[in-house]
Design a protein that fits this description.
Helix content is 76%, strand content 0%. Helix 3 runs antiparallel to helix 16.
Length: 437
């Protein structure tokens, strides 16, 4: 059984077990004592511990993998003087997909009108205190590290990217010492990928534990009250992932989108389970390189950058939430307001990159720009955990699409690997399960 199949089975089993435990907990079928034991020793005990260990193990690989891969990639790119064009194309595509995402979200939400007829009692006694967003000047200054070790300790991706690019550029221009350093980093990159491969052996167990715990603790009462909002966000997320990304990939690279979606299944499963683009970087990067055929020098730049600034899923949530809140409170923001939402959310995806709680900060910025009450954020937060899982899967899919398009334009894509339908391992021999499903 291949890795993809095992992960998908673990996902389904985790959801089923979680929903069952949630039902037992709310219905008290087993009695208060037995229910408390299940909750304490399984939901908050075994599942929580296994899930947290798995997330910690994934995060352990993020910084060394991004740093080493990006140094190798920057070194190769610097020899051909391609860093500037590569960065320009990548940023442009990420901004384009974010703008399309929020425009699509606003359009669908205005047609379906999820906030019309919502019980205003939901909004009573609900408060939300938004964190203050940092000024643009501070964000720009903070992109550049004063201490690379501190940046790596904090996991500040933008600072790590800047340091790795500078180091790779210097290595490429250091003559014989640079060649020795390049060889060292290339060897280290292979070792780190093998470490990720070892971790993948335990992936299905981690995925099962994460989803079982999540669905066991989530209540569904609020979901029923906000079902229309939830459905619209989910619909737009799927439409953007399957429609917009497919169209972009076909138009800009001529490649088959179905092959990309098939090969991204393991990474999408991880993103769904962890609800963290950053934690999924090791899996996304290895999948994009080994299954889609994107050269390391491209993927090492586009994937970490995408995990930091590519927020299509978050932009979709913001678009639908803005319409939902405006309709619920009966406030018409007009065409100018909606254009402001598109511009603010698109620019904020880069302007708030690397800031903790970025999704809520971005939504607060958007609502403030168009004069909507911030209390509305607390209302939609009730179902945000489930939607966060889906939009993270959408985000990393967008990272893979942009990486593939940029690689094709740079002549750094192996179409033989991309079109190989028997290639089921995440890394050939390195990620276990190298057999076709």
């Amino acid at each position: 059984m291949g890795l993809t199949t095992r992960i998908l089975i673990a996902m389904l089993a985790g959801i089923v077990v979680g929903v069952l435990f949630n039902f037992l907990n709310t219905s008290q079928v087993l009695g208060a004592g037995a229910t408390d034991l299940v909750h304490r020793y399984l939901t908050e005990g075994l599942f929580d511990v296994v899930g947290r260990i798995f997330i910690a193990s994934l995060k352990l690989m993020v910084v060394p993998l991004v740093l080493v891969s990006l140094v190798c990639g920057a070194c190769a790119l610097s020899e051909g003087h391609r860093i500037g064009p590569l960065a320009g194309k990548t940023l442009l595509l990420y901004l384009l997909t974010t703008a399309v995402a929020i425009s699509l979200a606003l359009l669908v939400a205005l047609v379906i009108q999820p906030g019309v007829g919502v019980d205003m009692s939901l909004a009573k006694d609900v408060t939300f205190e938004a964190k203050e967003s940092p000024p643009l000047s501070e964000v720009l200054v903070n992109i550049f590290p004063t201490n690379p070790v501190e940046a790596m300790a904090r996991g500040n991706m933008l600072q790590i990217i800047v340091f790795a690019l500078l180091m790779g550029y210097a290595v490429a221009r250091c003559g014989e010492p640079g060649k020795r350093m390049a060889g060292f980093f290339n060897d280290l990159n292979e070792v780190i990928l093998r470490m990720v491969g070892v971790l993948m052996v335990f992936a299905p167990y981690g995925v099962f534990a994460l989803l079982a715990k999540t669905f066991a603790t989530l209540g569904f009462d609020f979901l029923l009250q906000l079902a229309k909002y939830f459905s619209v966000v989910l619909c737009v997320l799927l439409l953007h992932a399957l429609g917009v990304y497919s169209l972009l990939l076909k138009l800009l690279s001529g490649l088959n989108p179905i092959e990309l979606f098939k090969k991204m299944r393991p990474a999408m499963a991880f993103a769904f389970s962890t609800a963290s683009s950053a934690a999924t970087i090791p899996v996304t990067l290895a999948t994009v390189e080994k299954r889609l055929g994107v050269d390391n020098k491209i993927a090492a730049f586009t994937v970490p950058l995408g995990a930091t600034i590519n927020m299509d899923g978050t932009a979709i949530m913001q678009g639908v939430a803005t319409v939902f809140i405006s309709q619920m409170y009966g406030i018409d923001i007009g065409l100018t307001g909606y254009l402001t939402v598109i511009l603010t959310a698109t620019l904020a995806s880069i302007g708030t990159a690397g800031v903790p709680g970025v999704g809520l900060i971005m939504l607060a910025m958007v609502l403030q720009q168009v004069g909507l009450p911030l209390e509305g954020i607390a209302i939609v937060m009730g179902v945000d955990r489930l939607l966060d899982m889906v939009r993270t899967a959408v985000n990393i899919t967008g990272d893979s699409v942009v990486s593939t398009i940029v690689a094709k334009s740079e002549g750094a894509l192996s179409e033989e690997t991309f079109n190989d339908r028997n290639y089921d391992s995440v890394a050939n021999g390195g990620f276990m399960g190298a057999s076709a499903n």
